[in-house]
Amino acid sequence: MPGKNAAPPPTAYRRAVLRLARRDQTAAELRRALAEKGHAAEEIEAAIERLRRERYLDDRGYAERFARSRMAHQGIGRARIRQGLRQRGVARTEAEDGLNAALAEVDEQALVDALARRYWKLHVRVEPDRRLPRLWAFLVRRGFPAGLVRERLFALWPRWSDALEGLDPLDESPGGHAGERD
């Protein structure tokens, strides 16, 4: 008989472990995925709690690894990292803790300098007085604090620093959103 030896459907815990074996995930991502598979809310919460107890699931650790990876390998700044963590369902405090831990390991200033130098070389045909404000905007869009970007560009190209006049820093508070002004 075809159904006699069929295995029972996987539990929420088993599905979650298999997902975590493939890729690091947040608790919110696991909840969504398990709910889509039809698991009951109680079973999902029990699985999440068990994974946390067994230290397979840690949103703060996820936030730290996510931030370190995005900064070091993709040249992404803290504002875009916060946004990515919010999209993945990481709580604000866990996201900030993870981001701060990653910032202790990755030199954000050196990262801004490296990205700025690469951009400067790639856009050599643009006049420096036009290139510098565009570079500032590029780095701010990548999520770096406007004040840090301004400081580094002044330090790297003091000869053309007057091109940065009038570029006001954006709100850089942890809860601030790019584009908000005081």
Write the layout of secondary structure elements.
Layout: H1 12-22, H2 27-36, H3 41-53, H4 59-74, H5 78-87, H6 92-105, H7 108-122, H8 128-141, H9 146-156
Mean pLDDT: 88
Kindly state the percentage of residues in helix.
55-70%
CATH class of the largest domain: Mainly Alpha
Q: Ends: how far apart?
A: 72 Å
Alpha-beta content class = mainly alpha
Total number of domains: 3
Poorly predicted residue ranges: 172-182
Strand content bin? under 5%
Largest beta-sheet details: none
CATH architecture level-2 label of the largest domain: Orthogonal Bundle
The value of Rg in angstroms is: 22 Å
- What is the overall number of helices? 9
Account of the protein in words:
This protein is mainly alpha-helical and 182 residues long. It folds into 3 domains: 57 residues, Arc Repressor Mutant, subunit A, CATH 1.10.10; 49 residues, Arc Repressor Mutant, subunit A (Orthogonal Bundle); 57 residues, no CATH class. It is 63% helix and 0% strand. The protein is built from 9 helices and no strands. The C terminus is likely disordered.
What's the short version?
This protein has 182 residues and is an all-alpha fold. Helices cover 63% and strands 0% of the residues.
